[in-house]
TrEMBL record:
<dbReference type="GO" id="GO:0004029">
    <property type="term" value="F:aldehyde dehydrogenase (NAD+) activity"/>
</dbReference>
<dbReference type="InterPro" id="IPR016040">
    <property type="entry name" value="NAD(P)-bd_dom"/>
</dbReference>
<dbReference type="InterPro" id="IPR036291">
    <property type="entry name" value="NAD(P)-bd_dom_sf"/>
</dbReference>
<dbReference type="Pfam" id="PF13460">
    <property type="entry name" value="NAD_binding_10"/>
</dbReference>
<protein>
    <recommendedName>
        <fullName>NAD(P)-binding domain-containing protein</fullName>
    </recommendedName>
</protein>
<dbReference type="GO" id="GO:0005737">
    <property type="term" value="C:cytoplasm"/>
</dbReference>
<dbReference type="InterPro" id="IPR051783">
    <property type="entry name" value="NAD(P)-dependent_oxidoreduct"/>
</dbReference>
<feature type="domain" description="NAD(P)-binding">
    <location>
        <begin position="10"/>
        <end position="97"/>
    </location>
</feature>
Length: 349
């Protein structure tokens, strides 16, 4: 197998750190990674042997230079359009100089699929990653859409640059990196459950989201990177991969979290009733981010990873979401049981 120099953005995050941990198992790869501060740079270097590039998404020249020195860029951090353009510019220089195509693998998300049903129904026809025409026709205001569309537009020189967009759904499970190992959406639900002492949903919770365990997700990226290096991955107009392994109603997801909280925090829920009920607008504002929370947590995001399974041979096999919640919930119970003001709403979608 050919060697590859990979520049990773997001190495200190939940998703990016997990991808890095998986790819480091392959000794044919060498890595550089963008970090904002020296202390994290030192840890990446000393603990993982990863060469740090200190900077931020505002440092466009830093991004261009690091991309120009890499065969593959994996952006697992941001939808920042100027930064993405800088990465593309650097990779095009790399591909033009080396005589072989450079790759940009963008970690987008199935939040781009979200509708506005306010938790009232699951009547969204699942999106297939082979149905590029339907995906491209999503409204411009969808999150991730501007960067996704830009990358689709950069397909005129496939011998120089090849772009691949990956769209994970809701990710669960303990991360594999050395920094942030906590998922995104599940902690929001857990924190809201603990703070409100309710078996609550955003809307009625009759909407569905795709899910994937982080262990299965990193195996997907392992297969994708190998396929890209070998010239076997889809790219350009067809370079779009979902990575779901199943889906759940949000009401069921919230119920699983509530059950885990009750199991871990008998102290907290003696004054509540276990009957599931929609949260109030003020509670959604506080714990889920208001209108954005209604859109993401009460919308459908249904996908089918047929391209990943057929072309890459990806076979998800990790535990179901409800089987993994005890450790996640226990962390938030210990963190928040004595100070509800520590709840910090937020989500990567």
């Amino acid at each position: 197998m050919s060697t590859a120099k990979i520049f990773l953005l997001g190495a200190t995050g939940y998703v990016g750190g997990s991808i890095l941990a998986q790819l480091l198992k392959n000794k044919d790869y060498t890595f550089t990674a963008l970090v904002r501060d020296q202390s994290r740079a030192d840890r990446l270097k000393s603990e993982l042997g990863v060469e740090p590039v200190i900077g931020s998404f505002e440092d466009l020249e830093v991004l261009k230079k690091a991309a120009e020195e890499s065969d593959i860029v994996i952006n697992a951090w941001s939808d920042d359009l100027p930064a993405t353009k800088a990465l593309v510019e650097g990779l095009k220089k790399r591909g033009g100089r080396s005589g072989k195509p450079a790759y940009l693998i963008q970690v987008s998300g199935t939040g781009v699929l979200c509708d506005h049903v306010n938790g009232e129904s699951d009547e969204q026809e699942p999106f297939d990653d082979y149905d590029i025409k339907r995906i491209r026709a999503l409204p411009d205001e969808q999150i991730h859409k501007d960067v996704d569309d830009y990358l689709f537009s950069q397909n005129d020189q496939p011998d120089v640059l090849r772009t691949i967009i990956t769209c994970p759904p809701l990710i669960y499970g303990k991360g594999l990196g050395i920094f942030n190992v906590r998922s995104k959406q599940i902690p929001v639900i857990a924190q809201a459950t603990i703070a409100t002492r309710k078996n609550g949903t955003v809307g009625k919770g009759l909407n569905k989201w795709g899910t994937v365990h982080v262990d299965d997700l990193v195996k997907f990226f392992d297969l994708l990177v190998r396929a890209a290096i070998d010239g076997k991955a889809s790219y350009g107009d067809e370079g779009f991969y979902f990575a779901e392994s199943g889906e759940e109603y949000l009401k069921d997801m919230s119920q699983h979290v509530f059950d885990a909280v009750v199991k871990k925090a008998g102290w907290a829920l003696v004054d509540t009733v276990p009957v599931q009920t929609p949260l109030t607008d003020s509670e959604v504002d506080k714990y889920y981010g208001g209108a954005f929370g209604y859109w993401i947590f009460a919308g459908n995001s249904r996908s089918r990873a047929n391209r990943a399974k057929k072309e890459l041979g990806w076979k998800p096999e990790a535990p179901e979401l409800w089987e993994t919640l005890d450790e996640e919930v226990e962390y938030w119970v210990e963190k928040l049981k004595n100070d509800e003001t520590k709840v910090e709403p937020g989500v990567d979608a």
